[in-house]
Write a structure and sequence with these properties.
Blueprint: H1 2-41, H2 44-49, H3 62-69, H4 72-103, H5 110-122, H6 127-136, H7 154-165, H8 169-177, H9 182-190, H10 195-210, H11 214-219, H12 228-237, H13 256-286
Helix pairs in contact: 1-13, 3-13, 4-7, 4-10, 4-12, 5-7, 8-9, 10-13, 12-13
């Protein structure tokens, strides 16, 4: 009885210490986000005087007003929104159509196509061949060069195919008997049953498109077509980066540190806001095709 009581007390102490450690680790992880948020809303005087600002005495949104009064920042935000919305929609359509076709055993050449897709997950042609292909297709300095080369992923195709394999063939046969063609089966039967997987992969694609950086460095030479991440990188490296279009003299006094922090917040918040809407589908969709019954 005594050993049982001692074991229970030991477990309680372990739980308390474990909870304390986890809380401290969580605070350490959250502090950089808190600091960026605080500095973006702090007054110019406090930012210049404080080495480590923990809580501003005076709150102001001048840094955000400065960013959106420029010509470059709203334009870059629009490019990133276009990539995230249009790119994600195109990628989901192509990925789901390809995955559905490969999941049908009656498809001719199915094994060869699966092998070719599998090879793309193992071997990457490299930067130079990819650049030459984009150049020869005439897509240099085009926003589509940031979408078409990464329109789908072999890994995502294989995962979504595993989900489509679990859909009973009887549903497809019934739809074909009722007069649906293959496109109708995909659109009317398969997609409504695949909302969880579409939500999960849509989130993956949206995050990737929103964070587009390296391909933009390779293919986009005109600053007018830069996505948000390229502009943010230039702002972080060179505080004197000219964004243009600011006519309000009151905003000229905003410290470069506040501008940088506000830009980081604006580039981070939109994707964070997407997660709550897709959370109920994400856990189920993330495991799609990974377990066979």
């Amino acid at each position: 009885m005594k050993s049982s009581v001692m074991a229970t007390q030991g477990e309680r102490w372990f739980s308390r210490v474990n909870a304390l450690v986890l809380i401290l680790v969580a605070l350490l992880c959250l502090f950089p986000f808190y600091y960026v948020f605080i500095v973006s809303f702090a007054s110019p005087a406090e930012v210049r005087q404080s080495v480590l600002l923990l809580f501003p005495k005076q709150w102001t949104a001048d840094a955000y007003r400065y960013l959106f009064s420029t010509s470059a920042f709203p334009r870059a935000t629009g490019v990133s929104l276009f990539l995230a919305i249009v790119g994600t929609a195109c990628s989901l359509v192509i990925t789901s159509m390809l995955s559905y076709g490969l999941s049908r055993k009656r498809l001719k050449g199915r094994r060869v196509l699966l092998l070719m897709i599998l090879l793309t997950t193992l071997f990457n042609p490299g930067i130079i061949p990819g650049y030459l292909v984009v150049r020869d297709l005439g897509m240099i300095n085009s926003v589509w060069s940031l979408i078409i080369p990464v329109l789908t992923s072999g890994w995502y195709v294989l995962l979504m195919k595993g989900f489509f394999d679990s859909i009973p063939a009887a549903l497809e046969e019934a739809a074909l008997i009722d007069g649906c063609n293959d496109f109708g089966v995909w659109y009317r039967i398969v997609l409504p049953l695949s909302l969880s997987s579409l939500a999960a992969f849509g989130l993956f694609y949206a995050v990737a498109y929103w964070n587009t950086f390296f391909t933009a460095v390779l293919y986009i030479n005109e600053p007018e077509k830069w996505p948000l991440q390229i502009l943010l990188q230039n702002m972080l490296i060179d505080s004197s980066t000219a964004l243009g279009g600011v006519t309000d003299s009151a905003l000229q006094d905003v410290p470069s540190q506040s501008k940088k922090m506000a830009a980081i917040i604006v580039s981070t918040v939109p994707i964070l806001l997407v997660y709550p809407f897709l959370q109920k589908h994400f856990a189920k969709g993330a495991m799609v095709g990974s377990v066979k019954e």
